[in-house]
Amino acid sequence: MASIIFLDSPACSGFSYARDPKGCDVGDYSSSLQVQRFLNKWFTDHPQYLSNPFYLGGESYAGKVIPLMAQYISQGTEKRDQPLINLKGYLIGNPVADPKFDTNFRVEGAHGFGIVSDQIYEAAMKNCKGNYVIPQNQLCAEVLETVDSLISEIADGHVLYKKCDFTTPKPIDDATRRKFLLEESIEPNDAPGRPTVDCFTYGYYLAYFWMNNKMTRDALGIKWGTVGEWVRCNKEFPYTHDMPSSILYHLNLTTRGYRALVYSGDHDLLVPQLSTQAWIRSLNFSIIDDWRAWHLDGQAAGFTVAYANNLTFATVKVILYSSLDHLFLSTELFCGSCNRAHNRLFVQGGGHTAPEYQPEESFAMARRWLDNEPL
After folding, report:
1. pTM of the entire structure?
2. Is 352 a catalytic residue?
3. Domain segments of the chain as ranges
4. In the UniProt record, does the keyword Zinc occur (predicted)?
């Protein structure tokens, strides 16, 4: 389907590094320029790929800066800078865009999911008058505190899943498992807190050990001594959120002919699909193909709408699987208690971010869109 470059950005995230420590101190604009410079150098070294249609893609907060990166690349092409990257468009999932949309619709989304009652939602509407970002009065502040407290009870990345350890670092409590998993590995300072095996975030826990394994680093070509301990979420990263909104860049790019696929897991409350739909509507594009289901294997895999200027929005929806379809979700199947597990259904669906929860559906969506086929 495509040749893919996975880039750890900004510098000093993941396995990327900077020779000068100041190179790690970046923000939205400076890190996007870093990406443009990287791509210019990469295509200079690999000119055989210049004729390929090129797309940018990112999830969550990366979805906010992807349009900025695309803007920089587009401007370079217009100036006839070398190399001429054949940019065609971009894909963004569960994307952060603008707090006046992203934050505002968390309240409405929580109400829609049944986390917030009608009375609380009505009080929020009455006292906050549509502004849930910065409370303008004490009553608004109080009701928003109540909303936040209720949302804190659930996993807002996917409201149907268990609330589990996510990124909080603390020492691992199983010395034997630690020794086994860390053979030939970088010795950690603090392994992440271990969620139970039936938690979705258990994969994040295992990823920590896999990424710090010497064989993994050798396979990825990580230069020895550049990055010590790999951590999934670095809370002390010196990053400046200096771009207030990405919506103008979406407008600039799509009206100039670049294609855009914007998609959302429909049970994400971190960046609700309601907020994404709202900022897309603010562009005032006419609808080309009205809201409809898109399908995979005869089932609705989500819903989609196509706008003028080659902008497509899609949701990735919840699907129910039997326990035998997805054995890894049932700890009981590993201890012989299969009779009880046979009668269970496990919920999967679009969360934050959609491809993590629904990889097959997300892959089909991306492939069709890249091939210029209807979803």
Report:
1. 0.85
2. yes
3. 99-151, 175-232
4. no
